[in-house]
Each structure stands twice: as structure tokens, then as C-alpha cells.
Write a structure and sequence with these properties.
The chain is built from 17 helices and eleven strands. Strand 1, helix 1 (about 15-25) and strand 2 (about 30-35) form a beta-alpha-beta unit. Helix 11 runs parallel beside helix 14, helix 14 packs parallel to helix 16 (about 340-355) and helix 15 crosses helix 17. The chain is an alpha/beta fold. The longest helix is centred in the last third of the chain and has 21 residues, at about 360-380. Helix content is about 50%, strand content about 15%. The protein has a seven-stranded parallel β-sheet with strand order 4-3-2-1-5-6-7, sandwiched between helices. A four-stranded mixed β-sheet has the order 9-8-10-11, with helices on one face.
Length: about 375
């Protein structure tokens, strides 16, 4: 295939699996960008021969340039470099798989350049969903979901009329602490939370999965991706992660997408849509699982999910406030500064105490994000938890 692909976050979990797909089908890589893993970025550059690369951490730029002096590749750095790659019209599709709010501006840059996006950066839609989807519609840009759940919904909608959709069913693994009480969760450590039962993800997303914030973020993403009301989204805990999500139509027929828990399947579908080619993973055998289970999420124990749903009902910058607070709280938990349950407490407090406003610009989003991060840092510093 002749499609040219640019990847932001090429050294992360999604990025490296995307390159497995590229390798499997002999696709062309136009550009790569990473945060600070120069060893892996150098290796990827030598294998895939991109025209441009970017290292986000500017301190790594001189060393990366020294290592790659022998290759005809343009080396960029920082947010400016990230956006240059995102908006480069030589790419047919941009995979945005960076983690955090850093992904929003490159997404908007790609949209303004008319480049279709395979979106794996949750914060793009959580923090700036109204802004992003409006601008994408104006520019005629297609946004293909990479999250397994949103990819499942997207696949289930193929060949059906969107107007006949009744609701969607988002499945959740429940994370490593499913069934535990708040009393039990008070003593869990970062190492415990990083042991996800089904998926191999980066640290931040894995912690979000443990708190169920990840599902809250996906709830908000689904609202924007599929133009839904919160009442049209149901979350079901499905421990086996075989049914990736489902769609219920007005006639009450439910169509689900199944597969092994391997992100290469939704990554490949987003990159190659509408083609379905062999995927470098194993096939699903239902008889290996024998039993599939479904339960309601515990919103009181896992308050992050409850806060996320509340934030999207409030609207405006409330989801952005919640997201910024969560990012700082997760980082603090990973550094041992706060307890596991404090993550949910800080996100909830931020949404309650910071006024949400209507989003009219990128600057509105960033101001809300900054305010939420400052609130959480100051709350932690005071020990006011």
C-alpha cells in the first residue's frame, strides 16, 4: 500500500504496535515523533527511514542529531517540531498516540492541514472535544478511533444508518482491583496498580485503568466521536476483554465486535480503513474462554468514573478540568506522594471548585487545564486531602 503514515508517540505502547503493523504490511513511514526515548527512536529511524523525526524533549535533541548524522533525515524538537510533523501534508494519515494534553495542539494542527487522524490521544477529545469535532467537520477531516472500545463501536456502525443508533455499550476490564472495597484500595501501591490483567499499556493509562478513569475518559470520547448524549452510553464491566464494545439499534438488535485483547487490531483498522488485511496477532477462540461475564461498574468505590460522567454532564471546560487534575494526581501517585484513592478525590474536588466555562478557543482549554493542575499541586503541597 502507498499510504504515507506519520506517528506521534512512536516509542510508546501504541506507537511500537503501530510499527508492527507497518512492518507486517510494508507500509511507508513519513515521520516519527517521540518524547525522550532516543535509543528506540534512533532504531526506528534506521529501520523505517522516515523523512522527518521529532524528539519532544529538547534536551535530547543534540544527542539524537549526533547519532543520526549519517542519515538524510530532518530532525525537529519540542512542541514546534511536533506540530510541524502533525501538519505536514506529505502524510496521508497521522497517528496521534502521545499521552496527555500535549496531544491537543498537534491534533488541531493536523485538522487545519486537512490530514486525516487515527486518534489514540484521549485528552484531545476529553479536554477539547467540542472544538476538535467542530473544526474537523469544517475541514472535512476524518477521525478514526484507535481505542479498542471506540474502534469496536466504529466497526459495528459500518453498513448501518447512524440515525438508527439507540445506544452504545462500552465494555471495561475493571482493572486489577475489580471487586475490592475502598478500605482495601487505601493500601495499594503503584506497583500493584501497574499490573493490568489483560492489556499492555503505558504507566499513565494503566493507572487510569486501575481507577476506572480510563473508562470515564472513553465515555467522554464516545460522546464526541459518535455525537451522543450521556444517557446513550452504558458501561459494562467485562473482565475477559473479548467483547470490545457493542451498539444497540432502535429495533433493539445489538451488534458487538469481538477479538483477542491486542491493540494491533484497532490500530490496523484505523490506519488501513476500510481495508481488512491479515493482522499480526493471534485469532480469537471462544472455546478457550468458555465463559464471558458482565457486571455493573462500582461508581462509589471507583469515584473517578463517576466524576468523569458528572463532568461531561456539566459540559464546557469541566472535562478538561477533571483531566488536568487527574494527570497531575496520577503522576503524584506514581511518585509516592499521594494514595491511590486520592487520585479520585483530587479530580472530584477540581471539578467541584473550579468554575467551568464554555469552550470557544484552544486558549480556553489550556487555561482550564493550567488552573486544574495548579489546584491539584497546591492541594497536595498543603496536604489538604
Amino acid at each position: 500500500m502507498e499510504k504515507q503514515i506519520s506517528i506521534l508517540g512512536s516509542t510508546g505502547s501504541i506507537g511500537t504496535q503501530a510499527l508492527d503493523v507497518v512492518r507486517s504490511h510494508g507500509l511507508s513511514v513519513y515521520a516519527l515523533a517521540a518524547n525522550h526515548h532516543i535509543d528506540l527512536l534512533e532504531k526506528q529511524t534506521r529501520e523505517f527511514h522516515p523523512k522527518r523525526i521529532c524528539i519532544f524533549d529538547t534536551a535530547c535533541y543534540p544527542e539524537l542529531k549526533r547519532r543520526l548524522f549519517d542519515l538524510p533525515v530532518e530532525i525537529l524538537c519540542g512542541m514546534e517540531g511536533l506540530c510541524e510533523i502533525a501538519g505536514d501534508p506529505h502524510a496521508d494519515i497521522l497517528l496521534n498516540s502521545v499521552v496527555g494534553m500535549v496531544g491537543l495542539l498537534p491534533t488541531l494542527t493536523a485538522i487545519d492541514a486537512g490530514i486525516d487522524i487515527a486518534l489514540a490521544n484521549k485528552e484531545t477529545l476529553v479536554a477539547g472535544g467540542s472544538l476538535v469535532m467542530k473544526r474537523a467537520a469544517q475541514q472535512g477531516v476524518k477521525i478514526y478511533p484507535v481505542d479498542s472500545e471506540h474502534s469496536a463501536i466504529f466497526q459495528c456502525l459500518q453498513g448501518n444508518q447512524r440515525s438508527q443508533l439507540h445506544k452504545i455499550i462500552l465494555t471495561a476490564s475493571g482493572g486489577p482491583f475489580f471487586g475490592m472495597t475502598r478500605a482495601q484500595l487505601r493500601t495499594v501501591k503503584a506497583a500493584d496498580a501497574l499490573r493490568h490483567p489483560n492489556w499492555d499499556m503505558g504507566n499513565k493509562i494503566t493507572i487510569d485503568s486501575a481507577t476506572l478513569m480510563n473508562k470515564g475518559l472513553e465515555f467522554i470520547e464516545a460522546k464526541w466521536l459518535f455525537d451522543l448524549e450521556p444517557e446513550q452510553i452504558e458501561i459494562v464491566v467485562h473482565r475477559q476483554s473479548v467483547i470490545h464494545s457493542a451498539v444497540e439499534f432502535q429495533d433493539l438488535a445489538v451488534i458487538a465486535q469481538l477479538g483477542v485483547p491486542d491493540m494491533k487490531i484497532p490500530i490496523q483498522y484505523a490506519l488501513l480503513y476500510p481495508e481488512r488485511l491479515p493482522c499480526p496477532t493471534k485469532p480469537l477462540s471462544l472455546t478457550d474462554y468458555r465463559t464471558l461475564t458482565f457486571e455493573k461498574p462500582d461508581l462509589e468505590t471507583f469515584s473517578c468514573l463517576k466524576t468523569a460522567i458528572s463532568a461531561i454532564r456539566i459540559g464546557g471546560t469541566a472535562p478538561c478540568i477533571m483531566n488536568g487534575a487527574n494527570e497531575v494526581a496520577v503522576a503524584a501517585f506514581l511518585e509516592g506522594q499521594i494514595g491511590f484513592l486520592d487520585i479520585g478525590t483530587l479530580a472530584e474536588q477540581a471539578v467541584e471548585k473550579i468554575e467551568a466555562i464554555e469552550i470557544r478557543s484552544y486558549e480556553d482549554v489550556m487555561r482550564a487545564d493550567t488552573e486544574a493542575r495548579t489546584f491539584v499541586r497546591e492541594t497536595i503541597a498543603r496536604g489538604d486531602l
